[in-house]
Amino acid sequence: MAEVLVLIDHVAGQVKKPTYELLTLAAKLGEPSAVFIGGADGAAGAAEAVKGYGAEKVYVIDDAQIKGYLVAPKAEALAQLAASASPAAILLPSSAENKEVAARLAIKLDSGLITDAVDLDESGVATQSVFAGNYTVKGKVTKGTPIITVKPNSAAPVEKAGAAAVTPFEVTISDAAKTAQIVASQPRKASGRPELTEAAIVVSGGRGTGGDFSAVEGLADALGAAVGASRAAVDSGWMPHTFQVGQTGKTVSPQLYVANGISGAIQHRAGMQTSKTIVAVNKDEEAPIFELVDFGVVGDLHTVLPAVTEAVKAAKG
Amino acid sequence: MNIVVLVKYVPDATADRQFEDDFTVDRVNVDGLLSELDEYAVEQSLQIKEKREGEEITVTALTVGPEAAEAAVRKALQMGADKGVHVVDDAIAGSDAIATSLVLAKAIEKLGPVDLVVGGLASTDAGMSVVPAMLAERLGLPQVTLASVVETQGDQVRIKRDGDVATEVIGGTLPLVLSVTDQSGEARYPSFKGIMAAKKKPLETWSLADLGVDASQVGLGAAYTAVEETAARPPRTAGEIVTDEDGSGAKALADFLASKKFI
């Protein structure tokens, strides 16, 4: 059975959940091989982690020549691995950076590319959600080695023992790929909350918070949820852009989305309307967000949310 | 200094966007306009020109698209770009990002030598966010992309890039490919003067033959992916809406969450 390469999503060797989702999807297409690009010290831990999700091989690519530069060296490394392994497909977790890596890889390998898949079947047909979530599109790569970026939460990870045979892979990075230098890097502060795109529950705030996110954060923490924000809240400087849900921010598809003080403009809907269950709290009963919700409360989020938070805490004991 | 800014004509996101029978995006029956996210690319191109006072700088707005796509170039000219190029050819219809990036690369080579290629975060229709990276790959230029802040000095470009795990400062040397996000700064509205001046600005129309691109390399037939099915998502139906009175809203919401097993 042909190999399917899965790029491991990790921070300093700490493997993130979308990797397991991709390994699960990869098993539909062939034999999953995980690809670790990182520091040598993180490889063993990462290999151990992916072993539990069916990875038969773990290619380890040392990132000494890669980590100081933007995108291009990673694409070069994956192209060299693809030339050697002749995989049936290459799957990458959908992130801004990985989509750019996939873009360059597609040109290098003269292969088709599908971005932001939300599902993948045995025949390689990928499902995408397009036009602000108003349409579902199914399609497949018809030329070269399919390169597919897959969004978080697209599959339930299935635990399955794999051999996870560690296979070091040497790459040669050209000088041409080292022309966009990472001059400085400031790691994002850990919030202690789940990642926005990976969370099962997202609690968001918008203009209606008036800049005070304490009620939103309080409910999020009681529910074990991630915190999101509308563009209005981000543009007002209340929350960093990394929290933005919408067309120009993150697209989320959690089990539960709670929109607070968010009117529900198309740009916001584009980022959340495929959520399973949607709840909104808004003072304005005319707010378009109420057209989408499974349950809505017309009221002041600053009084409603703390009371709900108390009820959640009480229920959880 | 030559700056080329990439502008895409897209169906209006606030209209009812739809697909043609061959699953390509309907670009005729839905009102189109310059992709909102490309306005930020035009803005940053103009700001670079304005900040580098005293230098000879030309900002060229480049689009690939059907007849109507000229409107995207026009808007860029109204905002302040100096000239426009519209690549239009029947054979291009249905092109994927791979073919589009090929046509753009050939057009940029024809415009050359180009110092800076500037794109937006993503188109508001396909939204793949891959064309700047593909162009950097094709043109063999440094890729300095997804900037929330852009600074240039001499032949050096520095950007701030807000990644998922870190905020980075990326540096590169001209010529290079730059892309900017909607965080890079509000795009200007065309002034009345700008709108009048745009009418006299040069706007060239190029065909595939002008670029030396064979029709077999582009269009739906040359696409590296095939859509098998499109389906409108069933509209969400509004559920129960209650009005909060003295805490009744919170109780009802908590009950709903409990009924759905979230608490």
Rg of chain A is: 21 Å
In N-to-C order, the SSE pattern of chain B is: EEEHEHEHEHEEEEHEHEEH
- Given the C-alpha coordinates, what overall shape of chain A results? elongated
The greatest interface between two protein chains, and residues involved on each side, is: A-B, 90 and 84 residues
Strand content of chain B: 25-35%
Q: What is the CATH-assigned architecture of chain B?
A: 3-Layer(aba) Sandwich
Categorize the overall geometry of chain B. Answer: globular
CATH architecture of the largest domain in chain A: 3-Layer(aba) Sandwich
- What is the number of strand segments of chain B? 13
CATH class of the largest domain in chain A: Alpha Beta
Number of helices of chain A: 8
Number of strands of chain A: 17
Query: Can you tell me the CATH superfamily of chain B?
Result: HUPs
Q: Helical proportion of chain B?
A: 25-40%
At the fold tier of CATH, the topology name of the largest domain in chain A is Rossmann fold
Instruction: Please count the helical segments of chain B.
Output: 7
Largest sheet of chain A: 9 strands, mixed
Strand and helix layout:
The complex is a heterodimer of chains A (317) and B (263).
Chain A (H helix, E strand, L loop, with lengths): L2 E5 L2 E2 L2 E2 L1 H13 L1 E8 L1 H12 L5 E6 L9 H14 L3 E5 L2 H14 L3 E8 L5 E5 L4 E7 L5 E4 L14 E4 L12 E7 L13 E5 L8 H10 L2 E4 L1 H5 L20 E5 L5 H7 L4 E6 L12 E4 L2 H16 L1
Chain B lengths: L1 E5 L2 E3 L20 E3 L1 H16 L6 E7 L5 H10 L3 E5 L9 H15 L4 E4 L11 H9 L3 E11 L2 E7 L3 E8 L2 E5 L11 H7 L4 E4 L1 H4 L13 E8 L7 E4 L4 H12 L4
Parallel strand pairs in B: 1-4, 1-6, 4-5, 5-11, 6-10, 7-10
Antiparallel strand pairs in B: 2-3, 7-8, 8-9
Function (chain B): The electron transfer flavoprotein serves as a specific electron acceptor for other dehydrogenases. It transfers the electrons to the main respiratory chain via ETF-ubiquinone oxidoreductase (ETF dehydrogenase).
GO cellular component, one term (chain B): cytosol
Protein name (chain B): Electron transfer flavoprotein subunit beta
